[in-house]
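User:
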Amino acid sequence: MNPRWALLLALFWLAGSHADALELTPRTVSGSRQFIVFSPDAALRNRAASLADDLKASILEILGDTGSWRIPVVISLKPAETAAAESVAFRLFETAGGSSIQISIQIGENPADAHFQELIARAVLLEYSLRNRPAIKGGEAYVEAPWWLTAAMVQMFATRGLEVETGLYRSVVGSEKVPEIKEFLMTNNAGLGSTARAVDASYAVCLVRLLIEQPNGRANLARLVRNWPDSQGDPVGALTKEFPGLAASPTALQKWWTVNLARLSVLDRYKGLSSEATEKELSALLRFDLVLNKAGDKRAFDLGKFEEFTKLPAFKSTMARVQSAMVRLSLQTNALYRPIIADYEQIFSSLARGKFKGVVEQIDEVTRYRAAVTNRMSAIADYLNWYEATQVNTRSAAFDGFLKAASELMVQEDKSRSNGAVKNYLDQLEREF
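Assistant: Predicted structure:
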């Protein structure tokens, strides 16, 4: 069916069956013509429609597909009169012109609770999976895309790419708590708190990224979405069907997942540390524990007082261990700290070999240079903070007329927003967009 005819029929059906709610409510149709947003607030309608189109474009780019849509998405946004009236509804209807997806949001005091982007991603993926199937009949059950794919699409849109948080994966791999991939695919995170949902979303991004890296990854991922309604509650089977390389053996999927999580955990190794992070790592290395006696008692020592521990039995092995740690730190250190790390590495090397001549002078020299670098970095930071706080903003009068008109327009727009919940939702959308 021609998308424009489907749109007109959907609007006709909505006006007839929900006359009280939508008949007189202004609407905005998105640039793609797929999203119809109803709201009394023009700015809210326009932003919601634009955001929906942008998120849809991001999803289709990830799937490597730009095909024409068939099912319109109707979005109703209005403020909730009371806290008890706050609600979010997501439905698939059979209309006179075919199927229609409807999203209804009663905006409350915390607009983020509506998860607008997640609702749009659900709608886009649902339409994508149904566009080449017979229309859903009234009351007939339907299957949405997997939660992890929806979460990944939203997160990847928010970061405008496929970047992952390596620190999260590094901490998980280091603690040996790599989640079982089958359990992860079967989990429903709908009832989890915001922190747990954020962690799951990061894993979801990881999974989608790894799937895209597979041969014909985007095409296979798109086929997975299209065939998901036939998955019959078996996410692992559906995944391995479209990505057969992951089903070579009973343990192949888990091995692939574990190995690639480990790989992602070190993707940022090429990035240098900041001066603050380098100083923190260096300070930790310059204070170390040494065993004092056969009972295993330990004491913390500073490098500057090396004369106090040169007679201890574990002295040389500890110096060698710290020297190796200095070498590892030099691979990521801030550029300004490289001479400092090199000098300390040489000092620990001399101590590990029992060579003490000139070490005191070396420690004094590198300590002075380190203090100079630290003071200079602190002075630069203080100057930047001062400049930002006290700089005089000077400008010509060339744009004063335009700025005045824009200011008046913003004042009028603020006055038109009589409901605080709608204003909060506009602000939330603006931050997300």
